[in-house]
Amino acid sequence: MKYINCVVLIVFLLFFTIGHSQSFDPSNLKSLDIDALSDEQVSLYWERAQDEGYSLGDLELIGASRGLSKSQITKLKRRIESLPVTSGIGSSSQEEVVDSKVVRKAPASDERRFGRGELENTSTSISNPLFGFDFFNNPNISFEPALNLATPENYQLGPGDQITISVFGAAEDVFERTVGANGSINIPNLGPIVLSGLTIKEARTKVNGRFKSIYSGISAQENSPYRVNVDLSLTGIRRVQVNIIGQVKVPGTYSLSALSNVLNALYAAGGPTENGTFRNILIVRDGIVIGNFDIYKYIISGNTEGNLFIKDQDAIIVRPYDKRVNVTGEVKRPGLYEVLPNESFTDLSLYFGGFTSNAYKEKVVIERVEGAQRSVKEIDVSESNVALVDGDLIDIQPITDRFVNKITIEGSIYRPGSYELQADMKLSDLLQKSLGPTDDAFLERAILYRTNKGLKKEAISFSINEVVSGDFDILLKREDAVKVFSSSSLEDSMTLSINGAVNDPKTIPFIDGLKVGDLIALGGGFRDGADPLSVDVFRRVVDEDLSTESKILKWSGNEELSVGINTDFELKPFDRISVRFRKGFVKQQSVSVKGEVFYPGEYSIVSKNDRVSDLIQNAGGLSPYANIKGATLIRKLRVRDEKTQRALVENLSDDGEIINENNDKEFRIALDLEKILSSNKNKLKYDIILEEGDQLTIPSFKQTVEVRGEVLAPALIRFDKRKSLKSYINGSGGFTSNAKKGKVYVIKANGEVSSTKKFLFFRNYPDVEPGSVILIPPKPERTGGLSVQEIIGITTGLGTLGLLVDRLAN
Fold it and tell me: What are the b/e assignments for 410-423, b being 16+ CB within 10 Å?
């Protein structure tokens, strides 16, 4: 028995080694059937390739060199990329980062944050330019009041607060009470004590005075052994109802702790919306405005003025903003800022944090809306008490890139670029340093650009010929820039163009003296449907008012383009001619029908709403021999993405489409004529609208079913509605050993493809109709490893060897 166990262990180890030690062989790529591989097989195949050091790109190159089609390569790549966990395709560290992000975004527990329950998952990583908006949008910040801190002395008691009165010293006692609805607490031998509306300090004084009637030691000296002390502390805080209304994200009535202030309440409601004010939040109590809160002052300087403790039935009102300005450019916090009516640019600078080190601080540019248009206003920073207007755009420009001793020369020069300005350096010296003008330089005029006092620019024109001859020269200053033109750049390439209803639309160089009729003739003449009486000539114009960009000239002629037409005129540079089609002209479109109709042939589309049923009616209707279940519509489409379309087509049957030499592809559309020709009012969704070139085919009724593929005897079998798909396969001799039984599919007479469905261990084969083709695909070629028969043979041999060893040992 011991030896048998050893043999079984050896067999298991050998089987495991054989099944998992197959190396990746790139020569097997050509024989792969990607569709026949399961996800487990694809995963194992990819792992072996990675173990051998192959990447996904290597597989594509090897597959192409081994004759594997592009569609199969694409399928393999998609199958690998779609695996649940694909190692080696992407970066593993990247996947870990993604996982860490998911953990970071997921809530730590089921507990809801303080207030703003509906906004827990609405946070976004995109920052809002409105200053203060993101203050309430940070999920990592909570303004929930701390309940474990000492109660403020100015906290006002109210119904629902829980207090503890401690008596200690010469007498000891503890009274735990809740302030009732009438605002009082009851103490034995004292009766009710009204505490509602009193601060903690005032309540402590009142309780101390009332307790003197039963504890005389309260009035004793501090160091007296008969001294009795009374203290009052808040142990339970009531809830108050607060109405938060106006421009907040989640307006409504909130139940908050009585220790909450205005900021706590705003956070509970999600804060102001983009249209709400951040500067003047009103606190209304008993119908009277008791304060206003400025969030900007709190954010910038921590100023808590107006951040009052809320009371029951308080109302916090967030009105729409009154005035906002946009600050861009060289500031520390660019964004959209709300300003109060009396605030100026100086106040605004506190909010955007001041200028950056690269900012130009002498002038500030303000774009302002004035009526129906905008205006630009420049202000000095030193005079920054200028009032701001709603909609102002303040752009802080950067300082200019000025150099102390830099001069430049560019254009048609041998050594263009920047040069050092030396003492008493002249224009002729710069030309000499740059090795002078090139052969195509325009020597009659060049320009020297000069900046005076850092702002004002000046242009000085000169002739290079005069500089070279010594007739003209000038001392250079810092940041001078010389521009030397080329002769070709000063010549505009003037053109004429013609488009529209002509046979050869084109653009040609301008020719002096050319007329409208001449250009139409150069464009190949009028096309069929052109309207010679409707020709537009668009001409450039120079309009000082800047209201007109071009001028339209009308030309009327005849189709013969006769010379001497009164409306013919000479063209000018950049004229553009557009020839129109006649009004209502539509090129005739045709469709065809063949097969079992009374009048097959070609028909014209009468209206844009012509459908398949209209075509059948025009063809005289269906003949008695028509197979309405086999009707198909062939439509031509120009497919731009050849690679993607080829991959899709190879998943269908060979009859699924026809590829023309002109790259137009014909696709078969399966039709349901029973529904199309029915009187059902929903038939329009089956009745397809016809397009140019459509071909309707209605075959005759067939009484056979074809079985092809991996069967012993492919054959045509007479159709019998009582037979199942398995019966037709058995009638062809049954499956071969190489048949892939789970992938059997049926192509119906109208081109519709139905495949075998699988649920658990059961297969649901498709229905068979007259004229159908049953296809049985082959199994994929084995790419490595041992077959089941080989494994059984090896294990049987090893078992026999083990028994022989056992007998010899005994």
Answer: ebbbeebeebebee
Instruction: Report the C-alpha gap between 36 and 508 in whole angstroms.
Output: 59
Q: What's the mean pLDDT when you consider all of the chain?
A: 78
The type of residue at 176 is: E
Determine the residue type at 246: G
Give the number of other CB atoms < 10 A from CB of residue 16.
Answer: 10
Residue 683 has pLDDT above 50, yes or no: yes
What sign for the dihedral angle of Cα 690, 691, 692, 698? Answer: negative
In whole angstroms, what is the distance from residue 306 CA to residue 282 CA?
A: 9
- The strand pairing partners of 668, in sequence order, are 634
Write the DSSP symbol of residue 586. -
Instruction: For strands 162-169 and 228-236, give the pairing.
Output: antiparallel
pLDDT per residue as tens digits for the range 742-795: 778 888 777 778 787 777 777 777 878 787 888 888 888 765 556 666 677 777
Mean pLDDT on 575-594: 82
pTM (predicted TM-score): 0.40
Distance from C-alpha of 618 to C-alpha of 614, rounded to nearest angstrom: 6
Q: Vertex 266, ends 264 and 269: CA angle to 5°?
A: 115
Helices in 535-680 by DSSP H: which ranges?
A: 612-618, 642-649, 673-676
Find where tokens 């070139």 sit.
Answer: 693
Go through the domains of the chain in sequence order and give each one's CATH number: 2-93 (no CATH), 129-137+239-318 (3.10.560.10), 162-236 (3.30.1950), 324-396 (3.10.560.10), 406-490 (3.10.560.10), 495-581 (3.10.560.10), 590-698 (3.10.560.10), 704-776 (3.10.560.10)
Q: Give CA–CA dist 677/604, Å, rounded.
A: 21
- Angle at which helix 70-81 crosses helix 642-649, to 10 degrees, equals 80
Residues 6+ apart with CB under 8 A from 468: 428, 431, 436
Question: Helices in 82-216 by DSSP H: which ranges?
Answer: 92-105, 200-211
d(CA 705, CA 769) in angstroms, rounded, equals: 8
Q: Taking a C-beta distance cutoff of 8 angstroms, is the pair 480, 402 a contact?
A: no
> The tokens of 465 are what?
């010929």
DSSP E strands in 392-480: the ranges are: 393-396, 406-411, 417-420, 441-452, 456-462
pLDDT in tens, 613-669: 777 878 888 888 888 777 888 887 765 555 555 555 454 434 334 444 455 677 888
Instruction: Report the SS3 class of residue 776.
Output: strand
Each residue of 147-179: pLDDT tens digit?
Answer: 555 677 888 888 888 899 999 988 888 999 999
| Secondary structure (DSSP) of 332-353 | SS-EEEE--TT-BHHHHHHHTT
Order the strands of the 657-659 sheet from edge to edge. Answer: 601-604, 590-595, 695-698, 632-638, 664-670, 657-659
Task: Indicate the helix (H) or strand (E) that contains 238.
Answer: none
DSSP string over 28-89: GGGG--GGG--HHHHHHHHHHHHHTT--HHHHHHHHHHTT--HHHHHHHHHHHHTSSS-TTT
The total number of residues shown for the chain amounts to: 810
Report d(CA 771, CA 774) in Å as an integer: 10
Q: In which residue are the tokens 């649901």 written?
A: 764
- The closest alpha carbon to 352, from 372, 366, 331, 321, belongs to 331
CA atoms of 153 and 149, how far apart (whole Å)? 12
